[in-house]
Structures are given as C-alpha cells and as structure tokens.
C-alpha cells in the first residue's frame, strides 16, 4: 500500500509503577481502501449524501483529513470517526482509490460514543434527534447526566431534555419528524401522560404562545391540585365527611349551612351543622391579609412613609366549610327566600344590577387567573434570567439600559444598592450573607473585581440592573405597570426572552382570552372570601 508511520501513543504524566512494564501503545497512519473499512456503530445517522459540493471534492481531491479506525480481533479496520468521508469516498471514489486513516487502540463504548458526539455535536449539521440517540446510548451504558455533559461538552439542560425525550415515544417521534425542537419535545414528553395538558400545549404552540410558560402553569396547577387533595385526605382522616374537588364539580348546588335557616327562619347553631341530613364538608381557600405592623408615624414624629416599606403579601389558607348539596333533604331553607346561591357571586351589594354584578365577578376571575399566571411566569422568567446573567458579554443595547438606570437613579437600582443586590446573588447562585446591616459587601466586591475586562464589566453591571428590576416585581406589577417595567421587559424580549400573556400587559398589549377556564379550580365559585382576591 503506502508507508506506515508509527508513533508512540500519548502517556499520562504520571504512570503507575505496576504499569511501567506494559507495552507502549502505538498509532499508525495508513492509506486504506474506504470500501474495506467496516462502518462501526455511530451516533450520526443522517450523512447528507446529497451534498454535491462535498461529493465533488472527494472525487477530485480525495479525503484531505484522515479518518480514525481501530483493528478488531480479526484484524479488520473498523471506523470510529469520519463516517461521512468514508462512505462518500467508497461511493464516488478518490484519485488514488485510498483514504488516509489513523489507526488507534479500540476504545471503550462510552468513550467511543462520547468522542463521536464531540466530533459532531459542535458542527452545525448534527440533528437534535441524533443528539438524543447519542445521549440515550451513553445513558444505557450507565453514564450519568453530569458525565454525559462533561464528556460531550453539551450543556446540562440539553442533556436533561434529551434524556426526557428518550422516555416518551410520541414526543420522540415528533422530534425525529421535525415537528418539534428538542426543547419543545422535552416539554411535551413531560406531559405525554396527560391528554388535556398536551392539548393545552398544542394550543399554545399553535397560537405561538410560550411553551415554557404554559408548561410551568401546568406544573403549578398540578401542585395545587395535589395540595388540595392532600388537605381533603387529612380532614377525612380526622373523620370529617369531606367532598372531593370532583364531587363539588358534579354537584348541582353546594350551599353553605351558615347561610341557610331552619323552617322557622332561624339560623342553625354551629354545633348542629354536622347533624344536618346530608351535611358534608367542602375545603375552600380564603385570602388572609396579614395585619399591617407598619406605624405610619415614624420615630421623629413625621408622617412620611419609608420608601422601602412594602406591605405583607396576602396569602391563602384552607378552611373547612359545612355545606349541603341537597337542600330539600337537609330540611333547611334559603335565607329570605332568595335565590339560594351561596357562591361568591351572591354579593349583597344594594342596588347592584346584574350587569354590574357580572362585571365584578368577571374582574375577580381575571385577577385570580392573572395572579396565578404571574406566579408561574416568575418561575420561568427567573430561570431564564439566571442563564442570561451568566453571559460573558452584554447584548446589543445593554449600555443604553444601564445608562438610563444609573443616570435617572431608578428606585429599583437604588434599593438593590442599599440591600447589597439580593436578587443578583439569587440569579448568580451565590448564597446571600445575612445577619447584619451591610452584609454582602465583600461578596459584591468579589463579583465586581471578577469582571476585569470592559466586556465583563458591562455584562456584570447589566446583570445588576436587570436583577434590581426583577427584585421589585410581583403580582402588583401586571396590575399597575410603569414605564420602567415596559422598558426592561422590552429589552429582555429583544435579547431572546419570550414573555407570557400576563407579562405582555407590561408592554401595553391587550390580554388575549385564556385557552382554559382559569377560575375553574380556584374555589371562587364557593368561596365568598375570593371577592377580595385582588
């Protein structure tokens, strides 16, 4: 054939004493017939054989970069890397009929797969379906997700997404067909067992809504249902006849006993409620507003409010309520002979027309739905921001946002400076020191001094500005957005963030109708306290 060149294989810097007598591995450089090379198992499945320029180059100039092979037990050459070059050369031929080959020792399967993925993953041509196949092969060999990421230099979220898709046949088939990206397929895979959830994701995709946001809402709703069910089971364990959420939904009416009266028109004593025929317990959520401990009058006697003061956030708690679902069987009557509806919609507002009452109910439902949507969006947004602030360089337009925040002395940045950037610590994954005023000064200095180049310093400052804004956001933000909210969110959108429907309110966009009845499971229909949910 041609000359054979042998070179000693690289050896570790430190060789164990008991290995000193082992034969040193050698590498050979040969020119081989491509048709005689055995094509071993490879993570690449799509060779793009129709690439005319590539085929023409091989035929006219041959293979310029050596492929990598090893000898098997029968002395045959088995391909490790260079599948596309080898297959094309065998099909169209080369000027000499041979291709250059580097002969190495036979690797372990995990090393082979990892090396093939490293070779291909960082070329634009490798498909996401092939990434999934490679990750799956490594996982089947017992390689952990962390090690897969390390071996292949694929970021951990992509590895996790690929592993999720390997366990969901429908989503994987859609990825293979090109109907879904890997990120989308991972989301669909998570909910593949739930047809209703898949339908909501399909609607979000069809209307170009953010899939990550819709997925987070599905997770939060599932967690809420699980918590509700756990509370039902807890009360049942105490011996109470508790209705499940399904039983409440199927009931024609669910009437609070406290709002009913006896045949004589008298309210029934609370201790008698459990004895009412057909009496059951419904678990509802009621809003609790913590007492305001802030003293409007400061120590110096002035009435000026502390600009850093923030009222405590209201929260919901479970409340067991005695109800009946069959008024006739209960022996009780509707108070005053009215409609008998004991839902939150039965307001006592004097002189309120039905249209006004319905408008009030609709607004309440909107507030409840948007509050939940904002909480879900916050999870997605902060995950995205954690990745964003880890960038090495700032995106286009960063300097203008930084300048505006610093020169105008925006309140969010001033507050972050006073409190040592707590949200920046959170987004960077750094434990925030606490325990004394000014805690975190040294850590802030480390973050600042680490940014030793102009690009790094700009990005770090941008991260501080964006984190400061994020720290001031909450459920109040969508209800009363300001110009700075729109300014920052617009910048994030320009830099790749896809906002949810409720976040788009900050941009002045009209909210689109929801794809589901957001008030269906919030207890609104049977909880008068929901009137104050806003």
Query: What percent of residues adopt helix (DSSP H or I)?
Result: 40-55%
Strand content: 5-15%
Instruction: Note the overall shape.
Output: extended
Major sheet:
5 strands, mixed
How far is it from the N-terminal to the C-terminal residue, by CA? 83 Å
- Total strand count, please? 10
Pfam family, one: ParB_N
GO biological process, one term: chromosome segregation
GO cellular component, one term: chromosome
Protein name: Nuclease
Protein described:
This protein has five domains: about 35-105, Conserved hypothetical protein from pyrococcus furiosus pfu- 392566-001, ParB domain (Alpha-Beta Complex), CATH 3.90.1530; about 110-195, Arc Repressor Mutant, subunit A; about 200-240; about 240-290 and about 315-335, no CATH class; about 370-505, no CATH class. Helix content is about 45%, strand content about 10%. β3 (about 65-70) and β4 (about 75-80) form a beta hairpin. The protein has helices at about 50-60, 85-90, 110-120, 130-140, 145-150, 155-165, 170-175, 180-190, 195-205, 210-235, 245-250, 325-330, 355-390, 400-410, 410-420, 420-430, 440-450, 455-470, 475-480, 485-495; strands at about 5-10, 25-30, 65-70, 75-80, 100-105, 255, 260, 280-290, 315-325, 335.
